[in-house]
Amino acid sequence: MDSDIVSSSVDRSQTAMPDALAFKSINDPIKNQINSCAAICVKQDDPCHLLRVLYESLITGGLAGVVVEAALYPIDTIKTRVQVARDGGKIIWKGLYSGLGANLVGVLPASALFFGVYEPTKQKLLKGLPENLSAVAHLAAGALGGAVSSIVRVPTEVVKQRMQTGQFVLAPDAVRLIIAKEGFGGMYAGYGSFLLRDLPFDALQFCVYEQLRIGYKLAARRDLNDPENAMIGAFAGAVTGVLTTPLDVIKTRLMVQGSGTQYKGVSDCIKTIIREEGSSALWKGMGPRVLWIGIGGSIFFGVLEKTKQILSERSQKSHNA
Known about the structure:
Elements: H1 3-6, H2 17-23, H3 29-44, H4 48-84, H5 100-128, H6 134-164, H7 171-182, H8 191-220, H9 226-243, H10 245-256, H11 266-277, H12 286-320
Helix pairs in contact: 2-3, 4-5, 4-12, 5-6, 6-8, 8-9, 8-10, 9-12
Transmembrane segments: 53-75, 96-115, 135-154
InterPro entries: MCP_transmembrane
Subcellular location: Plastid, Chloroplast membrane
């Protein structure tokens, strides 16, 4: 299988040796030093290429994450309120943008961190694994990216969901009061349930997306266009959104309970929900969740691939200049 098909489009801008050799003809000390680095990148594919991949991944991941959160935040708020509602409680339709600003502050570094880990890890694994095990590389890279970015994502999620459910109005007050009442650990409430949801979610979503892109490229014998990337992203998001809804309900309940002891952990949360509300309660909010992640997947991966393409083209132009 062609390596360009297996790797994402961030790999497209490999530096060509003729360009590096031609650059040597310029008698300038600084440019000669730059040329030496370019030659090393060409020969070793390290560390210059790794740094470029990391740089592009941080930009593309951060931008894609912010665009999706800003565009679809009201749907996420509705999903959260549906999941925490009990005993026929009414859903509040006001303040659907509560916590958006604070969420974007956390989403930008979290998304950048995820892709800063995901893309280099994926490429490293793809080089070391047989072609027929490319799905393993995507699964492992997605899970690792999710684990590392959870350091930022969990506190962001805790503050966001408590603001969405009306516990706080301002993010600084939320952070201050959570730490005052629950200690610093309160910022990581539901951390275990978050990993239980997000590690399989990230692994499955990116594996499905990457594998569908590989198959599509092989069938079409060309690169995918923007609508095709968006369509595959929507499908991958919707499928994983359905499969992980019960895990999302558990995560939400544990994160928003605050200093209360309604649920003592993941297993107790599951038992309590089933005993008091029935097993169907584990699927609460599936409609808005699938809608949010499906549309979000199309926007996210569409923006992601387009940004990669733009950065790749700029990189090629700078090398050819």
